[in-house]
Amino acid sequence: ExxxxxxxxxxxxxxxxxxxxxxxxxxxxxxxxxxxxxxAPGKEREGVSSISSSDGITYYADSVKGRFTISSxxxxxxxYLQMNSLKPEDTAVYFCxxxxxxxxxxxxxxxxxxxxxxxxxxxxxxxxxx
Length: 130
Hints:
Layout: E1 3-7, E2 11-13, E3 18-25, E4 33-39, E5 46-52, E6 57-60, E7 68-73, E8 78-83, E9 92-99, E10 119-120, E11 124-129
Parallel strand pairs: 2-11
Antiparallel strand pairs: 1-3, 3-8, 4-5, 4-9, 5-6, 7-8, 9-10, 9-11
């Protein structure tokens, strides 16, 4: 059974840091693209970052570039999201998700769009106070 479990969410002050973890079971992270998404109350789910562990390709939303870093540890089948210089607008429930890698076909592939992902975790709350 494919499972994703997020952890590491917390309440922090603006300017602080957190590291989120996404532990995968039932598959190896090298076989999928792993994405981090977030959803704030009343807002749509948005892509934050993604990583293709097999080739190390990463993507970031403009809003988090330079502050967040995604990484993976294939020995633990875990993907991390290091979040620095946190802002109140980063407050949201953060989800990790797994989806197939782009196969090079003649269609538009967006690694930060939720529709590209098949499996989702339950989420972890990140709250940033001002």
